[in-house]
Amino acid sequence: MSKPVILVLGAGAGIGGHVAARFAREGYHAVLARRSDGEGLQRLVSAIKTNGDSATGMLVDASDDGAIEDMVARIESEIGPIDTALYNLGAQIGNRALSDTPHRTFELGWRLGCYGLFRLAHAMFPAMVERGKGTLLVTSATAAVRGNAGQHSHAAAMGGRRMLCQSLNAEFAPKGIHVAHVVVDGAVNAPDTLGRMLGDTFEAYKASKGEDGVLDPAAVAESYWHLAQQPRNAWTHELDLRPWSDVPWWNDNPVAG
Amino acid sequence: MSKPVILVLGAGAGIGGHVAARFAREGYHAVLARRSDGEGLQRLVSAIKTNGDSATGMLVDASDDGAIEDMVARIESEIGPIDTALYNLGAQIGNRALSDTPHRTFELGWRLGCYGLFRLAHAMFPAMVERGKGTLLVTSATAAVRGNAGQHSHAAAMGGRRMLCQSLNAEFAPKGIHVAHVVVDGAVNAPDTLGRMLGDTFEAYKASKGEDGVLDPAAVAESYWHLAQQPRNAWTHELDLRPWSDVPWWNDNPVAG
Amino acid sequence: MSKPVILVLGAGAGIGGHVAARFAREGYHAVLARRSDGEGLQRLVSAIKTNGDSATGMLVDASDDGAIEDMVARIESEIGPIDTALYNLGAQIGNRALSDTPHRTFELGWRLGCYGLFRLAHAMFPAMVERGKGTLLVTSATAAVRGNAGQHSHAAAMGGRRMLCQSLNAEFAPKGIHVAHVVVDGAVNAPDTLGRMLGDTFEAYKASKGEDGVLDPAAVAESYWHLAQQPRNAWTHELDLRPWSDVPWWNDNPVAG
Amino acid sequence: MSKPVILVLGAGAGIGGHVAARFAREGYHAVLARRSDGEGLQRLVSAIKTNGDSATGMLVDASDDGAIEDMVARIESEIGPIDTALYNLGAQIGNRALSDTPHRTFELGWRLGCYGLFRLAHAMFPAMVERGKGTLLVTSATAAVRGNAGQHSHAAAMGGRRMLCQSLNAEFAPKGIHVAHVVVDGAVNAPDTLGRMLGDTFEAYKASKGEDGVLDPAAVAESYWHLAQQPRNAWTHELDLRPWSDVPWWNDNPVAG
Questions:
Q1: Checking CA distances to D223, which of A49, B6, C64, D147 falls within 20 to 30 Å?
Q2: Where are the beta strands (DSSP E) in A66-176?
Q3: Closest CA to D80 of D140, D134, D117
Q4: Distance (Å) from the alpha carbon of A129 to chain B's nearest alpha carbon
Q5: Are B144 and B162 in contact (CB under 8 A)?
Q6: Do B167 and C161 make contact, defined as CB atoms within 8 angstroms?
Q7: Rounded to an integer, what distance in angstroms lies between the CA atom of residue D33 and that of residue D16?
Q8: What is the DSSP string of B182-213?
Q9: pLDDT tens digits for B13-69?
Q10: Which residue of chain A has the CA closest to B220?
Q11: Cβ <8 Å between B148 and D254
């Protein structure tokens, strides 16, 4: 297969699915991987194919030993060299007081939020280094740049993720691999994650944010596409994304100064 | 005139000129403003027109009282509503010990690096607010995020610039104005600024940085174009840009940890 | 005179006055400088002397050409070598929309918030370098690390101040001068500044913050004293200070994550 | 026992041991916990007792399930309420390329660098909340604020640690618990860690840094003591510490600007 491959780890109906479709539309073969809901996955893959583009779906539990490594090996040998990967797994569990955050929860947050990214890079970068190029896009969150009440697990995982991205960039940018860390600093119109978390209140929540008040995953995918197309003389390592009407993470009450 | 207008303040042969040309190519009327070198300015304007696109050149000394204000008023009344502005004036004077940084130099750095941006926003935003939309792109530098030896004037100006951008964003994003602060964290292949500073050693310097080792202003302009096209549900306030082989500002000796 | 000298520029009844008294109590000669209110100044000086300690008061308008320079020269020649200086001048003008922030206001903010610090270092550091030691403490604010609505003037001045402190540190720490930037991230119980701003509502404001809910300037002075005593093998360049019950600048609504 | 208790987790001959001794000298009972080297531990405890102060030693492997929890319970029931704890466990393994960083190493880095701190807070904070006060000091590193080549494991652990500290602070500061994150941004004169890592070259390394060129753990302990004594109206959440002659993490080559 001669198409460049994009691997999306965490391919739901939000950012992941839209990035896969966006790259497929440009001639990539999109590999969509997610933990569960084979039917949902199949719908995303079919939508891409119906469009005349090219995609494969895989059910992968990234927290299983060897699962990420096997997936990378399989794609490289059966589908083609991975040109771009998107690490799109979250570790958000809503707000939990420390006493409501069991050890297991904290550990799982790290497994998905930080360790999985390390494992993906570990498995995927050697071939990219050999080819002298590759891109790793990482969806991240406000919690990567500041901790907050109720975010013990999420912030620890995301803070580790951000520092890991800087470490990967330091070693691998000079080898031709572009690592980009995207701080998604607002609610995304994603039925599989935010939608599931909010349930029946999802539509009311979106309405409460006003016009264009939540991030459209298609718009987010556009910025990911831009990042992946930057020539190596002008790479972005980090950018933030939020709706116009949202308060950025560094601002709170304007009165406080 | 029905074309949207982009105003580039600091339109030399580097980022400024390339952004003007990039937007003109997409159907904007580009207004290129710079302090001096009317011939160089004319060459940039002519190149855009030769391409079949639309541009105007203006000589403006941004440090003059009223100059920025007059320029904005003149463009709005004679050319058309400003859709996007790029503040591209620098305050870099090379490395100077504190004792070699006279009061006048420090003040001039602030006038160009910070005060001019305030004045541009002050003059231009009211009409944008009335129209409910507009974009202000700001070229910034490493010195906006960390001070360094020899950078007393430059870092003070750029640090003020960055905090001003956040303040402008906080007040005006909810009114539809997109403010984006671009941390250019590497050398730009710009004959009018870096080229003039380095003189005869410019080519040798670029060669020393290796292949794709300096930022190509056309590539930078591509990211500016992307920023200006982001729909308001997914705005970026800050991103960094550097060549693949450059060490990011937050890294120094890898041994230090 | 053989006592070490501390110069406090911006010596009101809040942080400035308390730092002066704290250092005087340890055997320093405190020079208290402020722009106006000679009576208030005299009260502070007298209180220190009544304690058996040593102090001088000076009325100085830091925004006047030459005023800072003359003050430094006069202290060095008439009182003694400046061991430690505290730059405690503010640029806070309350929250002002951009349209309510005239050019003059923005410039004055910079003159007090940033340029004055540059001038103090410019005038004072040569002698400190010759002596191989000295300390410059800088009171700073939340606006130095993040801009916000209504803070155009204040944040631009404070952001410049912070980057200037890093630049000064980079050149002068290796010459034995300790530069420390203190992010005061909360309201200070200071009658001359916050008190004047709030007027009749000052006491109600403090009560609304709860027990220990505003920064006690005596407690702040204790941390300044600690900074100034750190041996040069373990210097702090930046620390934050806020009341226990205050939300740090990087946190807003805990629900947002 | 009526003395307030300080628990030092990671009590070697460097920062940990010096903090224990410093607090003991002020009337605390110091509990020194470390993983191995019972003899070294005993020497530290004896030195404190010889001074007429009060201390207990414990061998604890913080990566064992239940070990931190048991230790906290035992101290609270057998020795006394923990007033202050210092989390001083490191995750530094020197510089390792990604390919030389096995999964196990990365996980262990997290267990010691991040998860252990979560477990300590989880076990210790409920009693502190009930008492309405307590202090958690956290020794951290440059890698908490920026990743770097070779630091994949260390930076991911420390970045998580920093965001966890902010999350703990957000929930527990308003309940009277002071969480302080100390960015140790330089080499510490610590025979048990840096000394062991450098072996025979330790003395030469220190000499190469010049006079006062490495952090003296006694000086560091002085700043920890200051942090723990701050009244709750003026708490510091984060400060940095480095030798005067060291380049701060945010600076590299002054030429680069």
A1: D147
A2: 82-87, 134-141
A3: D134
A4: 13
A5: yes
A6: no
A7: 9
A8: EEE-S-B--IIIIIHHHGGGHHHHHHHT-TT-
A9: 999 999 999 999 999 999 999 999 999 999 999 999 999 999 999 999 999 999 999
A10: A234
A11: yes
**B116 CA: distance to closest CA in chain D (Å):** 21
**Closest by CA position to D197, among listed D43, D97, D111, D92:** D92
Please indicate whether, in this complex, the C-beta atoms of D254 and B95 are within 8 angstroms of each other: yes
State the Cα–Cα distance between residues C40 and C55, nearest whole angstrom: 14
| DSSP class per residue in chain C | --S-EEEEES-STTHHHHHHHHHHHTTPEEEEEESS-HHHHHHHHHHHHHTT-EEEEEE--TTSTTHHHHHHHHIIIII--EEEEEE----------GGG--HHHHHHHHIIIIIHHHHHHHHHHHHHHHHT-EEEEEEEEGGGT---TT-HHHHHHHHHHHHHHHHHHHHHGGGTEEEEEEEE-S-B--IIIIIHHHGGGHHHHHHHT-TT-SB-HHHHHHHHHHHHH--TTSB-SEEEEB-TTSPPTT---TTT-
Picking from B176, B226, B241, the nearest residue to A244 by CB comes out as B176
Helix ranges (DSSP H) in chain B = 15-25, 38-50, 67-74, 103-110, 116-131, 152-172, 196-198, 202-208, 217-229
Spatial distance between the Cα atoms of B164 and B113, rounded to a whole number of angstroms: 11
The one-letter code for the residue type at B120 is: L
For chain B, which residues lie within 8 Å of any Cβ of chain A, measuring from their own Cβ? 166, 169-170, 173-174, 176, 178, 212-216, 219-220, 222-223, 226, 230-245, 247-248, 250-251, 254
Q: Which DSSP letter does residue B135 get?
A: E
Distance CA C244, CA C236 (A): 21
pLDDT at D95 over 50: yes
Taking the CA of residue C98 and the nearest CA in chain A, the distance in Å comes to: 14
Q: What is the spatial distance between Cα B20 and Cα D188, in angstroms, rounded to a whole number? A: 52
Nearest Cα to B178, choosing from B248, B140, B242, B231? Answer: B231
Q: How many C-beta atoms surround the C-beta of residue A132 within 10 A? A: 10
The interface pTM score, or ipTM, of the predicted complex is: 0.96
What confidence tens digit (pLDDT) does each residue in A42-86 have?
Answer: 999 999 999 999 999 999 999 999 999 999 999 999 999 999 999
Give the residue among A146, A90, B177 at the shortest CA–CA distance from C253: A146
Lowest model confidence (mean pLDDT) among C184-198, C208-222, D202-216: C184-198
Per-residue tokens: A84:
């771009």
Token pair in block for residue B165:
């951008």
| Inter-chain touch B251–D148, beta carbons under 8 Å | yes
Residue B188: CB atoms within 10 A of its CB come to 23
CA separation for the pair B72, C250 (Å, rounded): 36
Classified as helix, coil or strand, A232 is: coil
**C-alpha–C-alpha distance, residues D88 and D22, integer Å:** 15
Cβ–Cβ under 8 Å, residues A181 and A224: no
Task: List, for residues C202-232, the tens digit of each pLDDT value.
Answer: 999 999 999 999 999 999 999 999 999 999 9
Q: How far apart are the first and last CA of chain A?
A: 57
Listed in sequence order, the residues at least 6 apart from A33 whose beta carbon sits closer than 8 Å to its beta carbon are: A7, A8, A9, A10, A11, A57, A58, A59, A60, A71
Give the contacts of D56 (CB within 8 A, at least 6 positions apart).
D29, D30, D31, D32, D45, D79
What is the rounded CA–CA span in Å between residue A73 and residue B31? 52
Chain-chain contact of A233 with B250 (C-beta, under 8 angstroms): no
**Rounded distance between C-alpha atoms, residue A136 and residue D76, angstroms:** 47
Q: For chain A, which chains pass the contact test of at least 3 CB pairs under 8 Å?
A: B, C, D
**Contact partners, residue C231, CB within 8 Å, separation at least 6:** D212, D216, D219
- Tell me which chain B residue has its CA closest to the CA of residue A170: B247
Residue C252's pLDDT band (cuts 50, 70, 90): low
Query: Rounded distance, CA A74 to CA B86, Å?
Result: 47
